Amino acid sequence: MSQLLSVRDLKVHFPVGNRGTVHAVDGVDFTIPHGKTLGIVGESGSGKTTTALAIMRLAPITGGEIDLDGTPISRIQGEDLRRARTRFQMVFQDPFSSLNPRDRVGRIIRQPMDLLGLGEPSDRDTRVEELLQQVGLRPELKSLYPHQFSGGQRQRIGLARALATRPELIVFDEPVSALDVAVQAQVLNLIRRLQRESGLTYLFISHDLGVVRHICDEIAVMYLGQIVERAPAAQIFAAPRHPYTQALIAAAPSLAPEHRRRGGGARLQGDPPSPVNLPRGCRFASRCRLAIDECRQVMPKLRECSSGQVVACHLV
Amino acid sequence: MTQPVLDIRNLKVDFMTRRGVAHVLDDVSFTVAPGELLAIVGESGCGKSMTALSVLGLVPTPPGKVVGGSILFQGRDLAQLRRSDMRKIRGGDIAMIFQEPMTSLNPVFTCGEQIAEAVRLHQNVSPGAAHARAVEMLRAVGIPEPELRANAYPHQLSGGMRQRVMIAMALSCQPRLLIADEPTTALDVTVQAQIFSLLDELRHKTGTAIVLITHDMGAVAEMADKVAVMYAGRIIEQGPADAVLDSPGHPYTRGLLASIPRVYADPDADLPEIPGIVPALTDLGRGCAFEPRCPLAINACHAAQPRHVAMSANHSAACIRLKTGEVLA
């Protein structure tokens, strides 16, 4: 299967005054085949959003390569980059702050086409109506303002705007975490239906394991700027190998009676270390119940441990 | 049976809005026993947080007003209390923790000072003793190096640590009732698990009753003894947590549970949806508020508010399609 997106050794570092450097993303590798979905999970500060922003060219790239079907996204600049933006679009977490409150919905959805000069200007309003229908909204709603919509409807508008340029890749950053569960199901089903119908490729960031399991073909687990495990979705839940993945899955409350437990799950103590003063060895070692001396001295590399499953741990 | 710590009966709260009167809470009744954890679940705007604010006497008046019912806390009706008496209870016998640990702590005082202030407001102790109590509470909630952290300002702590400080403050006066409004929504799942086990340990140790307000059914499964499901200002189902999760009676509860993506479900199937959206509280009809979205609705659902039907001991749902003792297939 050919890869639409390949990310190699991506690094995003931010200087923080004279106190050092935040290693927000520190050597991330993955690929996404055409028409598939990769999920990235991890705690706040693990670098999942920064990875997404770097791929969107909305965060400065310190090092590494991003390739979108032959186009070196990480290297192109200026007009080339601007034109390439039609091919990758993003849906943001907060459906309130990501839509301009002073624009009508029709204009919000039309704007990417205007800015990137897509199609004949006279056809664009028809296209806006098509897009609204595609995301399950009535076309006549285009003359309303964002505040007249509910959270779920706004997320549909954000999705219509992302679809406006007919992108190949859509990056979703926590697209349903601000929504109530009944509405969340509607939006998740819509996201999957659009992929089935249009063969879109998705990068899907979420902290909700149930959601990623439902949406993604493959899942990457990030911890402090690095991927610690990556595997097909079913595999990572059936047989998580990295101690952090195991802790993450154990910490998520489950509804199924056979997995239900009372009074909080297996404990992962403490907080991640500071992304400025990183430990020399494995970044998870300070919280890992299995850590040995080697873990504190030598950083483990990602290795394949079973078909399609890679993990960065000395003990696997 | 022990006397409940909190016994809410037929509570009604109205809000005056430009579009008319909104029945924000309508006929809400539940009890919580010492050491028990009741979860109140529902979507945004269903009245979960308003229930909590009513107990604390914090309903914004105007536009809101408690128009009926009683809130019995250890036998006293809080709805009838004078504001000065309510202030003695609030933060003392009844404590609350909020969703956002950053905005609910004061950024210009140290964590220790804020906890000590709560202690001194409710107990007649010296500043030194109050500070010692603050450090002791920080230790009790699992904060490492509590002597040091007592001198830290909120911004110097992580989200999980700040929520622990909030819990330490809430528990510093040994409340009989703790109201936790979405205490882990802003936190990562691993930190959420830590906070949950902390709350669970505390209620078993101290007998503090907890009302947990959440939209997360996973949290209910993990924490709750009992659960009340709210929709459009009413409790539409309540019962023991396992009973409600495993054999939900109300079509809304069933829809809600079915729509949650699960780790161990078939990922190829689409999620069952509840069509439509929550109605505005100002234009609720006479009948069941869920009727427009309900797959099982019949004409009679329009006519009147459905009464609670008992499904088993302590488990009931407000749906006329339920017959006593049996669950709709």
TrEMBL record, chain A:
Organism: Paracoccus aerius
Domain of life: Bacteria
Any Pfam family matching the protein: ABC_tran
SMART domains documented for this protein: AAA
Name of protein: ATP-binding cassette domain-containing protein
Location(s), subcellular: Cell inner membrane
Keywords from the UniProt entry: ATP-binding, Nucleotide-binding, Transport
Annotated membrane topology: Peripheral membrane protein
Family note: Belongs to the ABC transporter superfamily.
Location of the ABC transporter domain: 7-249
Keyword Nucleus belongs to the record: no
Major subcellular location class: membrane
Gene3D superfamilies cross-referenced by the UniProt entry: P-loop containing nucleotide triphosphate hydrolases (3.40.50.300)
Gene Ontology molecular-function annotations: ATP binding
Keyword ATP-binding: yes
UniProt-listed InterPro entries: AAA+_ATPase, ABC_transp_ATP-bind, ABC_transporter-like_ATP-bd, ABC_transporter-like_CS, Oligopep_ABC_C, P-loop_NTPase
Entry-linked CDD domains: ABC_NikE_OppD_transporters
Automatic annotation (TrEMBL), chain B:
InterPro entries in alphabetical order: AAA+_ATPase, ABC_Ni/Peptide_Import, ABC_transporter-like_ATP-bd, ABC_transporter-like_CS, Oligopep_ABC_C, P-loop_NTPase
Annotated SUPFAM superfamilies: P-loop containing nucleoside triphosphate hydrolases (SSF52540)
PROSITE patterns xref list: ABC_TRANSPORTER_1, ABC_TRANSPORTER_2
GO MF annotation terms: ATP binding
SMART domains found in the cross-reference section: AAA
Protein's UniProt keywords contain Electron transport: no
Alphabetical UniProt keywords: ATP-binding, Cell membrane, Membrane, Nucleotide-binding, Transport
Similarity-based family: Belongs to the ABC transporter superfamily.
Official protein name in the record: ABC transporter ATP-binding protein
The organism of origin for this protein: Paracoccus aerius
